[in-house]
Amino acid sequence: MFGTNLLERRSKPERIADDAWHHLVSAVHTAGDNIRDTARSARHSSVGLADDAGDLMGSAADEARRRATRAFDALAGRRPALPWTLLISAALVGAAIGWAAGTAARAAGSHDRSVDDIEFVDVERSDSPAETDR
Predict the structure, then answer these.
(1) What separation in angstroms does the CA of 90 have from each of 35, 86, 99, 100?
(2) Percent over 90 (pLDDT), the chain
(3) Tens-place pLDDT, residues 5-49
(4) CA distance 19 to 26
(5) How far apart are CA 92 and CA 100, in angstroms?
(6) What whole-number distance in Å separates Cα of residue 71 and Cα of residue 36?
């Protein structure tokens, strides 16, 4: 009872100020929640970007290490190793192309020539076998 009488006895400007204060606190809490959500989202996306950058830097560092090793070997007079995987794959591709060409040549060579040996008869000739006694 005592508390309700005090609230009722406040002046109108005090009540307006109190309402304004409550609205401000509510807005700050809402904005704070939005800011926290935005900060979380930014942190998650920045972690993803940092991971991508780390992967990129890792691959760049690996490439730099390979190049430095090759340069050191070249300065030491060592020849680079043969690219065996490239040589083997080129040999396999060549063998496949040769096999395909051989198969095509055999197929063309075994063509049935009896179709090409058709004898055409000229009916306009007098000594034509198609000429019958009339």
Answers:
(1) 59, 6, 14, 15
(2) 14
(3) 555 667 787 778 888 888 887 877 776 677 777 777 777 667 666
(4) 11
(5) 12
(6) 51
Tokens of 49: 């970007």
Per-residue buried b or exposed e for 24-59, using 16+ beta carbons within 10 Å of the residue's own CB: eeeeeeeeeeeeeeeeeeeeeeeeeeeeeeeeeeee
Q: Residue 125, SS3? A: coil
HSE of 105, CA atoms in CB hemisphere, 13 A: 6
- Tell me, what DSSP letter sits at residue 132? -
DSSP symbol at 49:
H
**CA–CA–CA angle 87, 89, 92 (5° rounding):** 110
pTM over 0.70: no
Segments in the chain forming alpha helices (H) = 2-8, 12-75, 84-109
